[in-house]
Specification:
Layout (H helix, E strand, L loop, with lengths): L14 H7 L2 H4 L3 H17 L5 H19 L12 H13 L12 H37 L4 E6 L2 E7 H26 L1 E2 L15 H8 L3 E2 L3 H6 L2 H27 L7 E2 L18 H24 L14 H23 L2 E2 L1 H7 L7 H11 L4 H18 L8 H5 L8 H5 L2 H7 L8 H16 L1
Parallel strand pairs: 3-4
Antiparallel strand pairs: 1-2, 5-6
């Protein structure tokens, strides 16, 4: 902790230690939470008869002045103050005198920073969820327009079976829904107040933690003070949730990059969210999804960094834990702008349904339907049907045709019992619609999934 008012340390800090030890240049991000927490704390102190009404009023008025100074750009953040807590307290002392020194009664910077940081994380659980809901709405708008837009469903990045574009995007709607639920769950689990735990063992003052928690909007107070001041699980959850979300964003970004290439040409990103080459004037580069893909690794790094910091710490607070904030601040900032720009890029993107449709004629997407036909209509075991279908696919390749384009006569060369009903079954749209099991890609099932997400968004 700080040397401020310490009887143990007699000499002033070296300039080098001030620079190494200080966190003020990044934890100033917490000024709103710090001021809000201090206002609630002095209200509790007054309620419990620990400070006078006059002292409480002077402190609150002074903190409001400081908040305005910071927001108006008039405040001086001095590295000598070490952190945002001492910075505000020192400024408060200059404004109102000795009453400012009462603000730290019945608390420690250990529970103060735990409070400020937890409030910041809780606020951003909600803000990130709100941004994700906007992304979900944009995806749903696109999905409603492309229920009948065929494209190749892939495994191993190889053409596999026919699906529709809405169905493909609904997979991402499902991912982002889980992300929202993860942030909501984390908010609920971590909405407990640490204030009043002091350094590690509570306080001898007759404090009222429940009252203070109520003022700050917490659901409850923490159970064990020793755990509370050294707990950063809430920050790790934030970093984990962001990492999983960025992984989902990165997967979608990868597909946008592929789809916008000349080889696919399924989509075209708007000029607003594309860049040009510095040397090749014909180029239109998908820098937005590429950056989104790249920033995912940055968020992973922040998670691993804090896990590494926390893995060997004895109870309770240790100075190592000052390293808990920069990575969280960075990941929160990164994920917020990532969600916003992905939402706008999708909203303004052109979708080339004809190119998607054309691509379904490559890769024999209805070959599985032929194998199923041979099994159900011609008495084959599936393994034998699979083998024969492979031979038919090889024949189609030699003829430069898709299996759905073969004539009945050609099919009957391989199996005379094949009837003309197979021609309808092999048509790509019919193949897609045949997958009508719950959660499948048929138009009927796709519409049900869209209806599900619409109800969820409306609830």
């Amino acid at each position: 902790m700080s040397k401020v008012a310490s009887g143990k340390i007699k000499k002033s800090s070296s300039k080098l230690l001030d620079e190494f030890n200080a966190s003020i240049m990044f934890d100033k991000e917490l000024y709103k939470e710090d001021i809000k927490g201090s206002i609630a704390h002095v209200k509790m102190l007054y309620k419990q008869g620990i400070i006078s009404n006059e002292s409480m009023r002077k402190i609150i008025d002074g903190l409001e002045v400081i908040k305005k100074e910071i927001e108006n750009g008039e405040y001086n953040f001095d590295i000598k103050d070490e952190d945002i807590h001492m910075s505000i307290e020192n400024r408060l002392t200059k404004l109102i005198g000795d009453d400012a020194k009462r603000v730290h009664t019945a608390r420690s910077r250990n529970d103060q920073v735990a409070l400020d940081f937890r409030m910041y994380v809780l606020r951003n659980f909600k803000e990130i969820s709100t941004l994700l809901l906007e992304l979900e709405k944009v995806l749903l708008d696109i999905e409603k327009e492309h229920v009948e837009t065929l494209l190749p469903g892939m495994t191993h990045l190889q053409h596999a079976q026919p699906i529709n574009f809405a169905y493909h995007l609904l997979a991402y709607s499902s991912m982002f829904k889980r992300d929202i639920e993860r942030f909501e769950s984390s908010y609920k689990r971590n909405n407990i107040s640490p204030i009043g735990c002091a350094a590690l063992a509570g306080t001898p003052y007759k404090s009222d933690r429940e009252y203070e928690a109520e003022l700050l909007g917490f659901e409850s107070v923490s159970i064990n003070c020793l755990d509370t001041v050294s707990d950063r699980d809430f920050a790790l959850e934030m970093l984990f949730n962001i990492s999983v979300l960025m992984m989902h964003i990165s997967r979608l970004s990868e597909e946008l990059i592929l789809w916008s290439s000349s080889e696919f040409s399924f989509v075209e990103l708007s000029d607003e969210y594309s860049t040009s080459s510095s040397i090749m004037p014909q180029k239109k580069n998908p820098d937005v999804p590429e950056l989104l893909r790249g920033k995912t690794g940055r968020c992973y790094g922040n998670l691993i960094s804090l896990l590494t910091v926390m893995k060997g710490l004895p109870l309770a607070y240790n100075k190592d834990m000052q390293e808990d904030k920069e990575g969280v601040f960075d990941s929160v900032k990164t994920v917020k702008i990532s969600i916003k720009i992905l939402t706008e890029a999708l909203k303004t993107m052109s979708i080339k349904a004809d190119k998607m449709q054309q691509a379904t004629k490559v890769g024999h997407l209805s070959a599985t339907d032929l194998a199923d036909y041979l099994t159900t209509k011609c008495g084959y075991t599936f393994r034998d049907a699979y083998k024969l279908t492979g031979e038919i696919v090889g024949y189609a390749d030699d003829k430069g045709k898709d299996v759905s384009e073969l004539s009945l006569k050609e099919l009957q060369k391989f199996e005379p019992n094949i009837k003309d009903d197979v021609l309808s079954i092999l048509q790509l749209k019919n193949s897609m619609n045949a997958r009508n099991s719950q959660g499948g890609t048929s138009i009927e099932q796709t519409k049900k999934q869209i209806e599900f997400f619409q109800k969820w968004l409306d609830s």
